[in-house]
Structures are given as structure tokens and as C-alpha cells.
Amino acid sequence: MDAIINFLQQTGFYIVQQNPLSLIMLAVACVLLYLAIVKKFEPLLLLPIAFGMLLTNLPGAGMYHAEFFANGEVDWASLGALDGGLIDYLYLGVKLGIYPCLIFVGVGAMTDFGPLIANPKSLLLGAAAQLGIFITFVGARLLGFTGAEASSIGIIGGADGPTAIFTTSQLAPHLLGPIAVAAYSYMALVPVIQPPIMKALTTDAERKIKMKQLRPVSKTEKVLFPIIVTIFVSFLVPSAASLIGCLMLGNLMRECGVVDRLSKTVQNELMNIVTIFLGISVGATATAENFLNWQTLMILALGVIAFGFGTAGGVLLAKVMNLFSKEKVNPLIGSAGVSAVPMAARVSQVVAQKYDPSNFLLMHAMGPNVSGAIGSAVAAGVLLALFGA
User: Fold this and answer.
1) Scanning 12, 139, 286, 290, which has the fewest C-beta atoms within 10 Å of its C-beta?
2) In which domain, by residue range, is 180 found?
3) What integer is the mean pLDDT of 195-221?
């Protein structure tokens, strides 16, 4: 009889009584799985994040122990004694900044920087779209978040999930779950969030501006670009070197033409494997204690604000540039400065074609889009330099 009682006390049905809030988190995980599978909201990352959230909140499973990573430190003694669960060991890739950097290698290998090289002015639009990061940082500070926490929340405005995860894992690991969910959820909602802002800030005439075809970019330029950017940005913001270096390494593999096998591996197998590990590990940090509080609601609200200001920043700078430039810029491409590649560029194209079906802005919008990826990594480097340990 004692054996039966002991068995029953070890079941999740009994253990859940000690932490009933985990049931709410299981429900949240199921909602996110629904959004990923049925609504196709960033499914490649939202699905593993949601399942990681589900696994970590299963009562008694013991797959993830937040106390092993408390106060920004890793409890190597417990991990070395094999006291950790599966996700504890997978999470080391997040904690040590490995997964986001590997994701950036894949992103670089899949990205064509040609539109940015052909139109260097678009770099300014990508930079302007980082306005959302710093506006949200100020707002978070006013709401009582620490500098490190506000920096992590602000990075949501860059629309760059790996950068948000990298920054948060270094500065505010206890907020990793809510920030990751917010970042990827809002990235999936770019086609919903951006168009109203774009339309509110532009006139019909501005939306119909046609831009001339971009010049051809030579192979030499494409090969030199990642090398030069890595050196320059690393000298300017050394703390951004890991993200920028990995992004440009992937792009160099793509453009140099001598490592096609490595380039294809990075774009496919490596990217897919790391995405699985990253998603599960990040989702596992969303425990009831970390997720079900007012901070999470404030983070979600600040995330929308960050996206809004980021979109507005790029559009407004494009309008300012038109005051001083002979060759007019369609302000709609400014919204692509948030680094949701290539979704934000597609949104610019879709909105423009509603007003003039013959207007093709996609390649023009890719310039600000890829510069936004660089800009968010640089912004993260600045915040890490200011608030990192």
C-alpha cells in the first residue's frame, strides 16, 4: 500500500497542487502552439518555444532548473554532477551566447546585401528604424525597470529575435521567456502592425513614388562588404563583434563562391538544428514564476510601442531625406528598417502596390531591411557595453 501511495505522490496530478499556476502556463503553451501550427505565426521558432514552455511547466518533470542560472551565474557544480535536466544542458547554448550567433551565421548566408551596397543611403533608414529600441528603453526605465532590463526590452523594437535573445541572456536572463515570446510574436505580426502606421505617416502621392532601378553590384563588392563591415563595426562597438562577425561570416560564405558546401550547410542543416535547440531552451525559461506577473504585461505593451516607433522612425527619415534629395525615396521602404528579414520588405511592397500595382519596391526595401539587421546588432552592442557586467 505504501508503494502505491508513494507512486501516486510522484505523479504530476499530485505535484501540480504545489504549483497550480503551471496549469495556466500549459494553457499558454497550447495557445502558442495553436498560433504556430494553425495561424502560422513564425512557426519555425514559435513552435519549439511553445513546446519548450510546455515541457518546463510539466509538474515533476524536472527538465529545467532556473536556480542553476540564478543571478546571471551558471551552477557548474550541479551541472557537472549531472543533477540537471535535459533543457538545463541545452540552455547553456543560450546562456553562453552560442545559439544566437550561430543563427546569425545562417541569416548572413541567406541574405543578399546587394541592395544595401547599391544604395548606401538605405543604411540611414535602417539606422532610423532603431529609434524604437531607444524610445522603448526610456519608457521601460520610467516604468521602473533597471537599465539592463530596459535594454533587453528595448531590443524587441529591432524585430530581431536572435539579437533580443542574445542581449537578454546577457543582461536580464530572468526576462528571457516573456521577451522571446514578445519578439517572435510581434515579428509574425509585422504585416498587421506596420501598414496602419505607414499609411498614417504618408500621403497618397508619397506612396506612389517610383524609384529607379538599382545598379548592378559586382562580386568584388559583395565579397569585400562583409569583411569591411566586420572590421569597422568591431572597432566602433567591440561588444557587437560576435553578432556582426557571425552575420558577415555567413554572408562571406554565400558570396565568395568557394565554399558552397559550407554555405548550404549553414543555410539548412545548421540553421534548422540550432533553431530547434534555441526555441526549446528559450521556451523553457517561461515558468509560471517568471511569466505570470505584471512585468510580462508591461513587456508585451512596450514591445508594440517599440515596433511602432521603429516603423515610424524609418518612414519619417525617408520623408526628411526627400526634402534634400533630387532622387525621391518612397517613404514606405523606411518601414523595412526593422530587421524582420524579409517580412518587413514584403510589407513595403504590398502596401505600395495597393496604391500603384506597377510599383515594385521589394529590392529597394531590402536595403533598409538588411541594414536594420546590422543596426539592431550594433544597438545591442552599445547596450551591452553600457549595462553589461
Assistant:
1) 12
2) 83-387
3) 92
pLDDT tens for 246-295 read 999 999 999 999 999 999 999 999 999 999 999 899 888 888 888 888 88
Cell numbers at 8, concatenated: 501516486
C-alpha cell at 42: 513564425
Q: What is the average pLDDT value for the chain, to the nearest integer?
A: 89
Is residue 160 exposed (0-12), middle (13-18) or buried (19+ Cβ within 10 Å)?
buried
At residue 264, φ and ψ (nearest 5 deg) are -65, -35
Count CB neighbours of 254 within 10 A: 24
State the pTM of this model. Answer: 0.89
Q: How far is 106 from 109, CA to CA, in rounded Å?
A: 5
User: Is there a contact between 136 and 309 (Cβ–Cβ < 8 Å)?
Assistant: yes
Q: Please state, as a whole number, how many other Cβ atoms lie within 10 Å of the Cβ of residue 258.
A: 8
* Residues 302, 308: Cα–Cα separation, whole Å: 10
Length of the chain: 389
Q: Does 196 sit behind a cis peptide bond, omega within 30 degrees of 0 on the bond before it? A: no
Which residue's C-alpha cell is 563595426?
233
Task: Identify which of 327, 315, 45 has the alpha carbon closest to the alpha carbon of residue 181.
Answer: 45
325 part of a folded domain: yes
Q: How many domains does the chain have?
A: 1
Q: What is the pLDDT of residue 95?
A: 86
State how far the Cα of 326 lies from the Cα of 322, in Å rounded to an integer.
7
Q: Tell me the three cell numbers of residue 247.
A: 552575420
Does 240 map to a domain? yes
pLDDT value of residue 389: 61
Cell of 12: 504530476
Compute the distance between CA of residue 326 and CA of residue 62 in angstroms, rounded to an integer.
Answer: 63
In a domain, 58, yes or no: no
The beta-strand segments (E) located in 290-337 are none
Are 206 and 319 in contact by the 8 Å Cβ rule? The answer is yes
Rounded to whole angstroms, the Cα distance separating 49 from 29 reads 8
> Considering the domain boundaries, does residue 164 fall inside one?
yes
| Omega cis (within 30) before 342 | yes
